[in-house]
Amino acid sequence: MDTSTYKLFAEETLHVNFNNIELLITAFTHRSYLNEHKSTVREHNERLEFLGDAVLELVVTEYLYSNYDDPEGILTNWRSSLVRTESIGAAATKFGFEPLLRLSRGERRGTERARAQILANSFEAVVGAIYLDQGYEAAKQFITTSVLSTFEQILETGSWMDPKSYLQELAQSKETSTPVYKVISEDGPDHDKVFKVGVYVNGKLRGQGEGPSKQAGQQKAAEAALKFYRQDIIPA
Q1: DSSP of 110-150, one letter per residue?
Q2: Bridging pattern class, strands 180-187 and 204-211
Q3: Both 121 and 172 in a single domain?
Q4: Is 53 annotated in the active site?
Q5: Is 124 labeled as catalytic in the residue annotation?
Q6: Within this chain, do residues 193 and 143 fall inside the same structural domain, yes or no?
Q7: Residue 81 lies in a domain
Q8: What is the pLDDT tens value at each position of the chain, 236 positions in all?
Q9: How many domains does the chain have?
Q10: Which of 117, 151, 185 is the last residue of a domain?
Q11: In a domain, 156, yes or no
Q12: Of 151, 181, 203, which closes a domain?
């Protein structure tokens, strides 16, 4: 993609008029792309990601501190839910980051999990680019629009809580029973295994999920079970 594509994206989607559009282009440049274009590309986005991560955390922390009087532990959990990979990756997807990513051919064929991480990293890098080019207030405005706007939904659904802990509360409340996790299957070589895990309440499957470890599979299964309970289904 040429420079004009990134300028148009910045103006129409990010609502930012970059003075130095190369900062934004770098924010979308993965390390793997640099390896394939060493003669024309000099920098990838990891330094911007480092900066953007700090700006993101500061903006979110400032927002929570200014608007809520809850204890530190609650504020910390809320902040974690807003800045975690899934949240900022979803924001990057919503804003249409993926077509703008500059990746190697190998990375373009990568796993869905790897792509989600790349999107999250690019989001932080874009925050860093906006901060450097336009200052703190512009970065804050972008974060408010893209991330903080989801906070009411996070509170409403309880997704800020650890999924397994929240599921245990719901299962005990609705079914007077504690969830039990079981590995349904294991696939793939030892260095790249995928575990499918089911979570059962009163012996009935309430959700299942996959992950690179049993713990990750349990988390995904718990998230799936939470969706089951949010549908207001009364267990038989």
Answers
A1: S-HHHHHHHHHHHHHHHHHHHHHHH-HHHHHHHHHHHTGGG
A2: unpaired
A3: no
A4: yes
A5: yes
A6: no
A7: yes
A8: 789 999 999 999 999 999 999 999 999 999 998 888 887 888 999 999 999 999 999 999 999 999 999 999 889 989 988 998 889 999 999 999 999 999 988 888 777 778 889 999 999 999 999 999 999 999 999 999 999 999 988 887 666 767 888 888 888 888 899 999 999 999 988 878 899 999 999 999 999 999 899 998 999 999 899 888 877 554 44
A9: 2
A10: 151
A11: no
A12: 151
Contact call for residues 41 and 34 (beta carbons, < 8 A)? yes
Statement to judge: residues 122 and 67 lie in one domain: yes
Structural contact between residues 114 and 107, judged by C-beta atoms closer than 8 angstroms: yes
The catalytically annotated residue of 53, 107, 133, 223 is 53
Range of the domain at 185: 163-230
**CB neighbours of 131 closer than 8 A, spacing ≥ 6?**
51, 52, 55, 138, 139
Q: Give me the catalytic one of 49, 107, 124, 133.
A: 124
| In contact, 228 and 194? CB cutoff 8 Å | no
